[in-house]
Design brief:
Layout lengths: L13 H5 L1 H20 L27 E2 L14 H5 L5 E7 L7 E9 L8 H5 L5 E2 L12 H5 E2 L1 H4 L13 H29 L1
Antiparallel strand pairs: 1-4, 2-3, 3-5
Length: 202
């Protein structure tokens, strides 16, 4: 049952009503930070981006600029299945599919654009891809631009990128997750066998 609770509010005195004391407190805090930043520039928490760059840490490494992976023959791993565009909550991925002349069964992206002005960097496109063709591990944080299409919109040519010392992945994201799950299952079974062996020895 919903009830009403009366709260006794404290009435402000004259100084609190005219906010003189609070304004002085705020000015003191602002002045303290101002003079501290002038006298000791190394303690300033901001950086001069993009001239200065702070390395990403932790999960931030998995939420940087997108890239499309390549196969050993140089073709994109993307098969234009539209799952990443469907999973994208910002609708910032635009794909146009085509077919290889020598293999009309398999598709490839004739056009693959990502509008970074709408992207929220949620990573759902990476999770949805069944071919492990898209990643967000470049470590590049895109900035603003006065030219929307040339700078903010990434084309397929901009996205095709291989990182140094990247292992070739012949299985998709679903296969990778399945392999990781199998690894957990195998470790669990081995741990169970070790426990049973210890019990049998006693």
């Amino acid at each position: 049952m919903i009830t009403i609770k009366n709260v006794d509010r404290k009435e402000n005195n004259l100084l609190e009503r005219i906010y003189i004391v609070e304004i002085i407190k705020g000015l003191i805090i602002t002045a303290r930070h101002f003079f501290r930043n002038i006298t000791d520039i190394n303690r300033v928490p901001t950086i001069r981006y993009p001239e200065e760059f702070r390395p990403l840490q932790g999960a931030g490494l998995e939420r940087s600029r997108h890239r499309l992976k390549k196969r050993p023959d140089g073709k994109p791993k993307c098969v234009a299945c539209y799952l990443c565009a469907t999973a994208c909550p910002a609708y910032c991925i635009h794909i146009e599919a085509g077919e290889y002349p020598e293999d009309p069964i398999e598709k490839y992206p004739v056009r693959f654009d990502i509008d970074l002005s709408r992207c929220v960097f949620c990573g759902l496109c990476v999770e949805a891809c069944p071919e492990d063709a898209i990643a967000m591990d470049t470590g590049i944080i895109p900035g603003g631009s006065y030219e929307r299409y040339k700078k903010i919109t990434l084309t397929k040519e901009d996205l095709l990128m291989e990182l140094k010392e990247e292992p070739e992945s012949f299985i998709g994201a679903s296969g990778r997750l399945w392999a990781e799950w199998l690894g957990v299952e195998q470790r669990t079974e081995e741990r169970g066998r070790r426990i049973e062996n210890k019990r049998g020895s006693h």
